[in-house]
Fold this sequence. Notes:
Layout: E1 6-15, E2 18-29, E3 47-52, E4 55-61, E5 78-81, H1 88-91, H2 95-98, H3 102-108, E6 114-116, E7 120-124, E8 130-134, E9 154-157, E10 166-169, E11 174-175, E12 181-182, H4 190-194, H5 209-235, H6 245-276, H7 282-320, H8 326-348, H9 350-354, E13 355-360, E14 365-370, H10 374-413, H11 419-453, H12 463-472, H13 475-478, H14 480-484, H15 489-508
Parallel strand pairs: 5-6
Antiparallel strand pairs: 1-2, 1-3, 3-4, 4-5, 6-7, 7-8, 9-10, 11-12, 13-14
Helix pairs in contact: 5-6, 5-12, 5-15, 6-7, 6-8, 7-8, 7-10, 10-11, 11-12
Amino acid sequence: MTIPPYLFVIIYSAAVSEPPRSSSVKLQKLTMFQRQITLYNENWFQIVFVKIDTNYYLAVLQEFEVLNISTSIGPDRQCLSINELLDSSQFAMPKIQRVKFYHISCQTHHDLQCFFDEAYMCFCTQEHHANCFKFSYANNFLCQYNIHCYNGGTCLQDSSICNSNTICICMDCFFGDRCQFYAKGIGLTLDDMLRYAILPNINFNDQSYLIKVSAILTMIMFIVGLLNSILCFITFYSQESRQVGCGIYIYASSITSALTIAMSTIKFWFVVISQINLSINRSILHIGYILLEPVLKLFLYMNNWLNACVAIERAVTVFKGINFDRTMSKSVARWMILLIPSLIIGIIIYQSSRRDLFDNHEEQRVWCVTRHSESVKNFNIAILLFHFFTPFSAHLLSAVFIIFAVAHQQAGIRTQHNYTRHLREQFYQHKHLIISQIVVVILSLPRFITSLFTGCVKESHNSWLYIFGYLISFVPSAIVFIVFVLPSELYRRQFKRSIKSLQQRSSRL
Length: 509
């Protein structure tokens, strides 16, 4: 059964020749992975019920006093509602007539331990008879004045007169002992997605399948991305391949792609290790939480924009034709490589100041949280949209321009064919420019969609969706060689020449 956020423990004491009476109610809030609780009671008790949401479970039923009792609850100990046991005609009878069927319920359901109606709680005896007593369902555990919980959290207390325990049940998107922190999935970070999946003080081998599978995928992506970046770096390492801006952009993109994949791997293991090992120095945690995410976004966004610059450079080359200035192209490329990271840093630097450590005393863990207002949240959405749609639009428009412009040029030279045929030929020749970017966008969509439209990180049943959307978004950075070099005959020839050059150098050594 799913671990609930809280439960009520209702204790009934026994009296001679009297029905059981409620002696105390204990309210217990559970941590994320807590499966056991320990309770103490001053007086002898006979019956213990556990209430989870609207369900009741029989935890203890003892005839003689036992000091230490260990028990468990599960579906087999659930007290069913009488309307689940009787048919509609029996349940519609007046209570005084309906009660006679309670014995039949015990006789027909041999595994049934207890059940209840609107006034009574009943046990099924060993002889399969119903033994009922009055049970109070009218207890109101809501706080009279909700001054303890923030952001619409539900305040619960174990007693309305002199309560000894008060807890907050947070609405979706909020967490903390008083629901003081916001966790909406806008601009998701790895900290948000994994905080409800990592078991503290537990070896990695004993972690959930989500963590293990994520680790395997992260390392596979790291190896593939590093290999792609090295191959791309080899292709554009020589000065000959960097005679125009495109070569410089792709050369820089091979470096930023490697840095992006490396930072995503470092980020993953930092989050996992810091949540497993709670003894890590707080200063290290603070530096890691503040710097790693913005630096990762810097490399990711920079890689997207460098790839967009490649597309724009190709369109400019077609537009200017023989008037294309290679020297100017190289100069602009060098300036853009310096300007792009500066602008990105200026846009996202504020995020570091919004990130801080939160000590969750209930969970006994340290979490990285982001505090922001509604206006900052809207700004985050705008930044996310800008860095997603603008590079893609540049790619798509540049590819379309190249196809139409070259088709127009060919129509003026090869007049024996009509413009439509030239357009089809150019589309077939340059279709990789469009297809590759569509693939990149499809791979980036999961993280984009989950960041904008799905529920909150707090909902652990969406963890697989979040984490895979996050990891898939780094695939474009891991396949830069496949996207730029393999579809281009010119770059493939350059790659072969670079490999031959390396082989010749190694043979001389």
